[in-house]
Amino acid sequence: MPEDQGGETEEEESEEEEKPEAKDDAKAAAKAPEPAVEDFRAHDSFPPIEGPVHVEYCSICGLPPDFCQYGPSWEKCKPMCMEKFPQYYPELSGVSLEDAKKKAEEASDKTKVKELPGGKKKREVSPHVTIKKLTRGGRKCVTSIAGLDGFSVKLEDAAKLFKKKFSCGASVVKGDTGQPDTVDIQGDFEEEVIEIITKEFGAVPRAKIVLAEGGTKKKGKGKV
Fold first, then answer.
1. Please, is 158 exposed, middle or buried when counting C-beta atoms within 10 Å of its C-beta (0-12, 13-18, 19+)?
2. Burial (0-12, 13-18, 19+ Cβ within 10 Å), 107
3. Which helix (H) or strand (E) holds 145?
4. What is the mean pLDDT of the chain?
5. What is the maximal distance between C-alpha atoms in the chain?
């Protein structure tokens, strides 16, 4: 019996000695391969430079378009890659472009966050157009439109368009501190201006236009 116990002890010790070796083997197998090292080539061994190389970059993430899928905003870049660089993404040939654009818009809204003091994050309000009817002098009406510049619409161009469509005065008015600039139209055109905005400025969807309660028009200087 003592001999058996001694034998078992020796076997256990031998197993324990083998375990660290197995661990070392596993670590060696899991170790990442060494990066490939290219042989050095002198600059005069390359063909002569004939001119600058034009490299195109994504307008959304700033990466070369074939690297967009590895970037931080792939869902937002996808429609652009499908339209302009389909050669890099043949697997997207059967994907609906309209669906990709909808997902890109949703992703854009979700990622609009603003960091506040203390590390708290506040979701940035998505751009929208606010139309408000203001009264001036008790009877005169002014239709004030704010937020068009959030859709890359030039306010000066919008003012000229409204002036022509409604045959009345229209100008860009600088907002007070912290307030956006507006396009003010002389007259009550709340409903009519919605139709013109959606028709003439395709980037502004109807769902992003809001009619707000009016107020009193303050005196101010127009920009144009």
1. buried
2. middle
3. strand 140-146
4. 78
5. 115
Q: 150 or 137: whose pLDDT is higher?
A: 150
CA gap 177, 220 in Å, rounded: 13
**HSE-CB for 198 with a 13 A CA cutoff:** 10
How far apart, in whole angstroms, are the C-alpha atoms of residue 137 and residue 164? 25
The overall pTM is greater than 0.90:
no
Give the span between the Cα atoms of 159 and 129, in whole angstroms. Answer: 15
Q: Is 119 left (phi over 0), alpha (psi -120 to 50) or beta?
A: left
* 195-207 pLDDT per residue, tens: 999 999 888 888 8
E strands in 2-128? 113-115, 121-123
> Pairing mode, if any, of strands 113-115 and 121-123?
antiparallel
DSSP bridge partners of 140 = 136
Residue 135, both tokens: 């009264």
Output the CA angle 199-105-193, nearest 5 degrees. Answer: 20
- Tens of pLDDT, residue by residue over 38-81, are 678 888 888 888 888 788 888 888 888 889 988 888 888 999 89
What kind and span of H or E run contains 40?
none
